[in-house]
Amino acid sequence: MDETSAKRPAGYEDVCRRIAAAEEAADRPAGSVTLVAVSKTHEADAILPVIEAGQRVFGENKVQESQAKWPALKERFPDIELHLIGPLQSNKAGDAVALFDVIESVDREKIARELAKEMKKQGRAPRLYVQVNTGEEPQKAGIAPQEAAAFVARCRDEYGLSIEGLMCIPPADENPGPHFALLAKIAKEAGLEKLSMGMSGDFETAIAFGATSVRVGSAIFGARDYG
């Protein structure tokens, strides 16, 4: 192990190694899966060692929390790519467009409309993913699977939005494999190639089912403090 890798945080090093092994096991090219390091609830001093280890793609759940810590970090590290992976309220669409490089939680008509308006107003175009509620859980955000392809088409045709891919969060108490397979099927129907799926507990399974990005938090940063 060289001096640089010796300094990498253990959790981050382990996740990178597991992603590489999962790519190989799935007969996929090395580096074909993007790691989105989920830094929600963690302060800048906890995120900095992971940035210094070379990670440049991060995910956050809340716009307001992100505004408090990321502008300064992005100023120091301008090549950082920041993803919004949590639900977006319509009144935060402007702030989200201003701060995030990728918004993964486009989940209803109102959000699509507000994002289109803000992107035109600001002259900024974050990359967009449609969130699909593969388990059709009433408490969870996302478009129903049977409506997802049509919603993607409406985003393109009615709002002029370029949708890059799909995102899902499978039910916590179910085998994630069928949900990942469903998301891949919908993406194919919609003509999309990017799949954001898989978290700390199931990202290797997601890679086997074609994930192009995985969202991993606790395996990198440790347990979150929600206090």
Describe the structure.
The chain has 227 residues and is of the alpha/beta class. The protein has helices spanning 3-6, 10-25, 44-52, 63-76, 93-99, 109-122, 145-159, 176-190, 203-208, 218-221, and strands at residues 34-38, 57-60, 81-84, 102-106, 127-132, 163-168, 194-196, 213-216. Strands 7-6-5-4-3-2-1-8 form an 8-stranded parallel beta sheet. The model is unreliable at 1-6 (pLDDT under 50).
What is the approximate shape? globular
Order of helices and strands: HHEHEHEHEHEHEHEHEH
Distance between the termini: 37 Å
| Rg of Cα set | 17 Å
Uncertain parts: 1-6
Mean pLDDT: 95
Quickly give the structural class. alpha/beta
Largest sheet report: 8 strands, parallel
Tell me the β content.
Answer: 15-25%
Find the count of extended strands (DSSP E, 2+ residues). 8
Identify the strand order in the major beta sheet: 7-6-5-4-3-2-1-8
Count of discrete alpha- or pi-helical segments spanning 4 or more residues: 10
Fraction of residues in helix: 40-55%
Draw up the topology in text:
Elements: H1 3-6, H2 10-25, E1 34-38, H3 44-52, E2 57-60, H4 63-76, E3 81-84, H5 93-99, E4 102-106, H6 109-122, E5 127-132, H7 145-159, E6 163-168, H8 176-190, E7 194-196, H9 203-208, E8 213-216, H10 218-221
Parallel strand pairs: 1-2, 1-8, 2-3, 3-4, 4-5, 5-6, 6-7
